[in-house]
């Protein structure tokens, strides 16, 4: 018996029958004597439908109103689930973001949770109610509705679990756990029974779509055990927890693949101090996040600077760099949207040598050229031509001994 | 130049193109130098769709959650219109019920507005923003979302206009004003240029669907001039205002027809003091509103008691009366769903004799039997067999000189 936070994603609440299934699962946990707090996403497809509707009005709808619009999705599912539980004679009550006191900054569309005043939630728990909270939404200091960005319901769930000091935060989704890589790309992908917060962080930031990265940051910061599992089976999923000794036995825990980036190459940049800042500051000023950056060694007094940006921002970034190139007297700007970023991730890397070498050798054996490389303590990423992405993932999966037996 | 509240109904915001039209109209009023506050309904059909969804969960979904669900309809249109205005470069901001401080009691599904703390609205007006408010919704003292019942956006609009001391509250709808009767029934129906609050109140309560009755009560109480007009034309509609001398020239201003009632007749009730209370108290205890009540003169120590209830409550009311009849020793209970209530309304009745006589004579000339009669200072209603309803309306319309020339 304990306090359990359960989060259900969009595919788990896609229609009334699925919502009834969620109600069964929630009520089972409740009947076992647990306090239960449920966080919900919008029905699958609803958020996209709302975005599509707004796009008929404006290419760039004003963000404050976009959040008011999008928040209806989670409001709908929260009401429907509370209603379903009540119709099954379980005491339940929905709370919207502002009612659950999910306080955020005012970065509409991508707000950060600042604080959760868990008073009202606790009050309802004390009354033995199942509390059903609309995920993805909060409100700022002025009472405006905010949303937390794609996958934000994960963050809602973990943050609320942290605020309530819940025993576990269960993330129910349409996959049954965290895999060594995307099973759609590699049929030999294995489900991990445990994964460290840091590994999960890297995987999330490198393209694995299981959990929103901020939710993992929250989980790590407040030490919330997160259980990623399927809403369609009873099977155990993957526990995301603090690093432990067992985990280090494996060099690499997972392979990720992201096709969300584009590469921009500014050629013939004069080799002067501060020139990289001149190339990159206008990009960040435009609110575009740069991921990897490579500066070549100077040659004939000039450098090449290459960097990656989200593919959605590629056009905007190219326009900026073409202007910048003229101003600083660079030779030319080349862009490439057809890239993929393949990464190997594992806390085991800290104590195993040769991971990079194995990675480069494996890609070379498949005749795959590496265009950019970046590393951290627990990951190595390579940018390659997009069409080789799946081959690279499968080869690395085998090379690092991750294949299912 | 002044402060104008504009309310748009569901058909006026039924799709993105219609919302763009609303934005044009709103921005025109704003460009003329007025402060503008807009109140919106949900897109036509959306509320019914949500009700249908809830009905898949439960025949009687818990009301608190129903309100959370229904409130998404107006939230959506408010966000979309604010977004549209912003994309046209007009400063706009949406407010939900709780943000606009629409404070209600906690009668979920049919809440009454207790107070509107217009602070936030005024703040935005002072910043020259067009304020777009989600109608139909408010929140109770505990911060729960409430809704105001069918047509509640009218009430939102008038109550907000009253709180802001607006110069006029314009109700944009799919008809171009208040008619002497339903033009779908009587092709000779005329648009009224002015109608008194009291007449409008009677018409609304007697079946005219133009305005929610509570909105007229608010308008009368706070003396808010209401302008009912079409969102699809530029024509003037009908002003709902204080009674003036002009209005009294006409005996009758309108004919209404309601098919929303059913009649229950309890026959052979023992003629004892307090027996009517015994018959009717169980009905009101069940939350069913009784409209007309007729008690016959006693004959052989027994009475007949007839009354009408909303047709939606007919079955429940019949069950109650069959039980009551046994308890009090009444002879039998008869029910009839096939009735219509035809009413003539007019403040002119106060100073004109013979309205009732004209009404009865007109119906008699068409061989229409009157089953029940009720009257007030400014209306007379007759219950007749449903199939004669349209004929009765047309005959009375001619008899009272209301036909279009």
From TrEMBL, chains A, B:
Which residues are involved in binding substrate?
A: 47, 74
Query: Which pathway is it part of?
Result: Amino-acid biosynthesis; L-methionine biosynthesis via de novo pathway; L-homoserine from L-aspartate: step 1/3; Amino-acid biosynthesis; L-lysine biosynthesis via DAP pathway; (S)-tetrahydrodipicolinate from L-aspartate: step 1/4; Amino-acid biosynthesis; L-threonine biosynthesis; L-threonine from L-aspartate: step 1/5
Gene3D superfamilies (alphabetical):
Acetylglutamate kinase-like, VC0802-like
EC class: transferase
Q: Which residues form the signal peptide?
A: none
Could you give a single Gene Ontology term from the biological process aspect? homoserine biosynthetic process
Q: Which domain of life is it from?
A: Bacteria
Q: What is its EC number?
A: 2.7.2.4
Pfam families this protein is in?
AA_kinase, ACT, ACT_9
Q: Which GO terms describe its molecular function?
A: aspartate kinase activity; ATP binding
Q: Which UniProt keywords apply?
A: Amino-acid biosynthesis, ATP-binding, Kinase, Lysine biosynthesis, Nucleotide-binding, Transferase
Report the residue ranges that make up the ACT domain in this protein: 264-347
- UniProt cross-references to InterPro entries, sorted A to Z: AceGlu_kinase-like_sf (IPR036393), ACT-like_dom_sf (IPR045865), ACT_Aspartokinase (IPR054352), ACT_dom (IPR002912), AKii-LysC-BS (IPR041740), Asp/Glu/Uridylate_kinase (IPR001048), Asp_kin_monofn (IPR005260), Asp_kinase (IPR001341)
Q: Which residues hold ATP?
A: 7-10, 173-174, 179, 209-210
A cellular component annotation (GO) from this entry: cytosol
Annotated catalysed reactions: L-aspartate + ATP = 4-phospho-L-aspartate + ADP
UniProt key word ATP-binding: yes
- In which family does this protein belong, per the annotation? Belongs to the aspartokinase family.
What is the protein named?
Aspartokinase
